[in-house]
Amino acid sequence: MTTARLDIRLDEDIKVRAEKATALLGLKSLTEYVVRLMDENSTRIIAQHETMVVDDDIFDRFISACEKAKDPNDALIEANRFTEENGL
After folding, report:
1. Would I find Kinase among this entry's keywords (predicted)?
2. Which helix (H) or strand (E) is 80 found in, with range?
């Protein structure tokens, strides 16, 4: 596993609390605690921003609207082409 280095400065009180939490969790080091927190939190944050959950009735209405949709007009086709060409 390739590792990267992260140097941080933090308030002494925060460090003391983090060291206590590390010990209470039975972790080997403050680094292990920080890495665990970063991994869990970043995974959660990414999921929140990349996932959409909708109620069943709203999803059903969306699917119904999609099924009834007409073929795209020239303006929509052009907008799609524009976004693809510009990496949007």
Report:
1. no
2. helix 74-85
What is the reported pLDDT for 88?
83
Q: Which residue, 42, 11, 39, 9, is CA-closest to 27?
A: 39
What 3-state DSSP class applies to 3? coil
Assessment of whether the complete model's pTM goes beyond 0.70: no
The type of residue at 75 is A
Structure tokens at 85: 């060409």
Cα(39)–Cα(31) distance, integer angstroms: 12
pLDDT digits (tens, 9 = 90+) for 23-67: 999 999 999 999 999 999 999 999 999 999 999 999 999 999 999
Its sign, for the CA torsion 14, 49, 46, 57, is: positive
Distance CA 85, CA 71 (A): 21
